[in-house]
């Protein structure tokens, strides 16, 4: 595939930021769609997109669209992903791609049946800083990973109902906790997951707000992931190995990493690697460091041009593993979504 032609499903804030990155990258965005044609028309005018649709069927039927980015509320993800795949479209879907592991398995099975690319938008995995960390871990030069701690938290008011209402897919774990969880999965790699434990505070609606996840891997690996929708946290990553350590700190947040510290001797100086995010975008972003979306759109286009059916940065197997862990955690916490009853 030489020229990758994008269609955008959903014209809200996150789609705005992703499309802004596509435009900055000079990618080819040919169409957008929203529930309201007024919204899609305004979105198209903002980014100079030639076609816009009211409703999503027109976009999915559009023969000029190769890959669909889905940035709608995540309770709608499974239905839209399935429809897009059924229409022969490659798909990049915002995280979480589904509300539970069952939904994710349906999507993965259809993508494989149709021989189409499918990726959950775990954009952190596409950052150059993350690739540096992955490379360090793959070489084994720092020895075996013993502990990993990661956190992500923001003070989000109760008025942002999509974070706190179960019917809207609310909950800090699905929205924020999956980021530090993904760091744990990267750090421990192929080590066998031995146990999962978690505790969290719950909103009166039943959605989780602040939580701590503890995972045990292999012989002696222990990982801790914490998250909160009620308070700002350190937003750091610490990976401690038998022969050194890796830190992501001193930047805005570890889920959009820009600075990596590597120590091979804890008594010595750290090697510091800087990966600044490009900021000279003509249109402002809605969310912090959304300029980093450019890494994800470049990665997806590289995958499609290379004929790949999944990402090697965030594979479908790892996506399923993450969602299975989240399902297990939610059972512990007593967090149940309407989709769990289907």
TrEMBL record:
GO terms for molecular function: D-xylose 1-dehydrogenase (NADP+) activity; nucleotide binding. SUPFAM superfamilies: Glyceraldehyde-3-phosphate dehydrogenase-like, C-terminal domain (SSF55347), NAD(P)-binding Rossmann-fold domains (SSF51735). Keywords: Oxidoreductase. InterPro entries: Gfo/Idh/MocA-like_OxRdtase_N, Gfo/Idh/MocA_domain, GFO_IDH_MocA-like_dom, NAD(P)-bd_dom_sf. It is an enzyme of class 1 (oxidoreductase). The keyword Oxidoreductase applies. It catalyses: D-xylose + NADP(+) = D-xylono-1,5-lactone + NADPH + H(+). Its EC number is 1.1.1.179. Residues 131-247 form the GFO/IDH/MocA-like oxidoreductase domain. Transmembrane segments: none annotated. Pfam families: GFO_IDH_MocA, GFO_IDH_MocA_C3. Signal peptide: none annotated. The keyword Oxidoreductase applies. Residues 4-121 form the Gfo/Idh/MocA-like oxidoreductase N-terminal domain. Belongs to the Gfo/Idh/MocA family. This is D-xylose 1-dehydrogenase (NADP(+), D-xylono-1,5-lactone-forming). It comes from Chloropicon primus.
């Amino acid at each position: 595939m030489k020229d990758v032609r994008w269609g955008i499903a959903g014209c809200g804030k996150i789609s705005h930021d992703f499309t802004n990155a596509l435009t900055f990258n000079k990618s080819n965005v040919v169409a957008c769609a929203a529930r309201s044609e007024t919204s899609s028309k305004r979105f198209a005018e903002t980014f100079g997109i030639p076609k816009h649709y009211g409703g999503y069927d027109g976009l999915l039927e559009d023969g000029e669209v190769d890959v669909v980015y889905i940035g709608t509320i995540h309770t709608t993800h499974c239905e839209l992903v399935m429809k897009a795949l059924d229409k022969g479209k490659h798909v990049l879907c915002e995280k979480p791609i589904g509300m539970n592991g069952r939904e994710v398995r349906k999507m993965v099975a259809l993508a494989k049946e149709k021989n189409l690319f499918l990726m959950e938008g775990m954009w952190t995995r596409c950052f150059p800083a993350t690739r540096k960390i992955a490379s360090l871990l793959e070489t084994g030069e720092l020895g075996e990973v013993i502990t990993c701690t990661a956190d992500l938290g923001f003070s989000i008011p109760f008025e942002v109902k999509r974070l706190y209402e179960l019917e809207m897919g609310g909950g800090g774990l699905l929205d924020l906790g999956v980021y530090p969880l993904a760091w744990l999965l990267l750090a421990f790699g192929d080590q066998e997951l031995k146990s999962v434990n978690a505790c969290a505070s719950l909103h009166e609606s039943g959605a989780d707000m602040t939580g701590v996840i503890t995972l045990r891997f292999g012989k002696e690996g222990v990982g801790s992931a914490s998250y909160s929708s009620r308070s700002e946290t350190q937003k750091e990553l610490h990976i401690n190995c038998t022969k050194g350590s890796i830190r992501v700190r001193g930047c805005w947040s570890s889920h959009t990493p820009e600075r990596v510290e590597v120590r091979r001797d804890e008594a010595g100086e750290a090697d510091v690697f800087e990966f600044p995010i490009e900021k000279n975008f003509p249109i402002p972003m809605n969310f912090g460091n959304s300029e980093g979306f450019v890494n994800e759109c470049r990665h997806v286009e590289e995958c499609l041009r290379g004929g790949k059916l999944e990402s090697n940065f965030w594979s479908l197997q790892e996506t399923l593993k993450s969602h299975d862990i989240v399902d297990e955690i939610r059972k512990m916490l007593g967090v149940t979504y309407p989709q769990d009853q289907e």
